[in-house]
Specification:
With about 180 residues, the protein is of the alpha+beta class. It has 6 helices and 9 strands; from the N terminus they run αβααβββαβαβαβββ. The strands form 3 sheets. Strands 1-3-2 form a 3-stranded antiparallel β-sheet. Strands 4-6-9 form a 3-stranded antiparallel β-sheet. α1 crosses α3. The mean pLDDT is about 95. It binds ligand HQG. Ligand HQG binds next to β4 and α4. The site of ligand HQG has 19 residues, from β4 and α4.
Length: about 180
């Protein structure tokens, strides 16, 4: 993504996931806002964002972070929320294993508490190690944790798959975790 689009994507992530009020916006219960309101909010923040550019941000986004409603009148974030939204995803059968990238400095705590969603609504999991590695790198020296997802699902835990292909679940207790380093 071009630098300009990355900057816009960060602004949109902030308002659609964490702080809509900071831009004078309010998300509906499913996380949507009117596109016209978002464009107006960007303008008030001195960001140059029009519909053509917004379509580019959505289409070229490396992680498919945002989705338009079918009529393109509304937009929402596909994952990453800290504000309470009901994404209306149906529970899905996960693959046998999913992966979580984290920083090595968090491992001791994770080995005690399991994976917790911290500020976000869900624990976010990747379907491949490469993606998990990238996610972990954002926090420091990366480490990949394997989650025995199918086993968890068999035990009654729910999994959702976002429109951006990220798996979402609640707390993952330590019995389902496997660590790379011994
Ligand atoms: C860690 C990005 C200590 C957890 C990514 C993570 C993702 C613990 C950090 C999405 C812990 C939270 C979410 C425990 C979990 N003790 N640390 N018990 N349990 N943690 O950013 O998963 O680029 O809230 O391992 O791609 O890194 O923004 O979560 O390191 O899909 O679109 O606490 O955000 O997407 O960090 O990232 P985050 P995340 P975007």
């Amino acid at each position: 993504m071009q630098k300009k689009l990355v900057r816009l994507s960060k602004f949109i992530s902030l308002v659609l996931r964490h702080k809509p009020e900071s831009a004078g916006l309010q998300l509906d219960p499913a996380g949507w806002v009117e596109v016209s309101a978002l464009l107006k909010a960007a303008k008030q923040t001195n960001l140059s964002l029009d519909m053509v550019t917004l379509e580019q941000v959505v289409a070229e986004n490396d992680k498919q972070r945002f989705a338009f409603s079918p009529d393109k009148q509304r937009i929402r974030a596909n994952h990453g929320h800290s504000v309470p939204v009901e994404l209306e995803l149906s529970p899905r059968q996960p693959p046998d294993q999913l992966f979580h990238g984290t920083a090595t400095r968090f491992l001791a705590s994770i080995k005690t508490e399991g994976l917790i969603s911290q500020g976000r609504l869900y624990v976010h999991l990747s379907s491949n190690r490469e993606m998990a590695h990238k996610v972990g790198r954002r926090h420091g020296q990366p480490s990949i944790i394997t989650v025995q997802a199918r086993k968890m699902a068999q035990d009654g835990h729910l999994f959702y798959c976002s429109a951006s292909n990220i798996w979402l679940t609640n707390t993952v207790s330590i019995q389902y975790l496997e660590f790379d380093e011994k």
